[in-house]
Specification:
Elements: E1 8-14, H1 21-27, H2 33-39, H3 49-53, H4 56-61, H5 66-82, E2 85-92, H6 104-122, E3 125-133, H7 138-150, E4 156-162, H8 174-182, E5 186-191, H9 197-207, E6 211-214, H10 222-230, E7 234-237, H11 239-244, H12 256-261, E8 266-268, H13 273-276, H14 280-291, H15 295-307, H16 313-330
The site of zinc ion has 6 residues, from β1.
Amino acid sequence: MDIKALPKVELHLHLDCSLSYNVVNAIDPTITEAQYQEEFIAPAKCHNLADFLTRAPKGIELMQTPEQLKLVVRDLFKQLAADHVLYAELRFAPLQHLEKGLTPEEVVHYTEAATAQAVRETGIEARLILCTLRHYTEAQSMETVRLVEQFKDTHVTGFDIAADEAGFPIAAHVNAFEYARQHGLFCTAHAGEAKGPSSVWETLAYFGPSRIGHGVRSIEDPQLVAHLKKHQIHLEVCPTCNVQIDLYDTYAQHPVDKLYRAGVALNLNTDARTIVNVSLSEEYQKMQQTFGWDIADFYATNRQALLAAFIPNQLKQDLLFQLQKRYHALAPQQIPAQ
Ligand code: HPA
Ligand code: ZN
């Protein structure tokens, strides 16, 4: 199986944590490759999520003008093309890009315009998710969710909460998710990564997302696993990232395969291509090597990703059709024709 050539759907991908050395060098030629390795990429083992996240500001610093935002979006689309990504959702926190005087609205406008152009040029379908951050105030969370509403007829499609789950409670963000619900906005939320099942229960109860970013510690509570299945809550799983933040010692100990076999809807993602230092194809390779996933498993999880994607139904049907056609062409014995 040529893993690289498999069509892929990536739902959990931080734009600001996924700069290749090429684009870093184009934006700031004084940054050497050694510095990039040292400062932008986290070691294969971090102490925890907070330690991992200390690398994120390096990329964000380089994404403060319209031109820089455009370069970073184009760079990420090149990486998506190399992984044969069919559809991607890219996320970032607009309020982190105001250091050179852009307004939050301008940040979203320029990033959205760059995304629209990259979609046209590459043929890779994509949408943007705007993130609030755990340490933000209620006002910052509300400002972010209002941007999702304001841009909802563009490539901006949903709302997320990221950053340090273990360090900051949910209280400041409940109203923002309530606003999202009232306005019919798609939502996902990071949970069940740095904290256990109680964090996933709390997130489901107070934020009401249709997907969970990570959510892998749900495996520790069989009732939660049953709940995720019953309500078709999709998990955006990023195994290498979880091993890196030392949630699991090794890839083999990661519960992704158990969750999948238990019937939880999930798909594979990189989370942060630079900090994690992984491509989506490499992530798939590890799944094949560690858990013996074959083309039918990759097809099934990509199909689940599209079913959970934050897109209108007609586009979803078109992408599901393309996915099946392309997997069938690669493995006619295993993947049925339409
Ligand atoms: N968790 C929370 N916030 C993040 C992550 C993550 O894994 N990656 C980038 N921001
Ligand atoms: Zn993430």
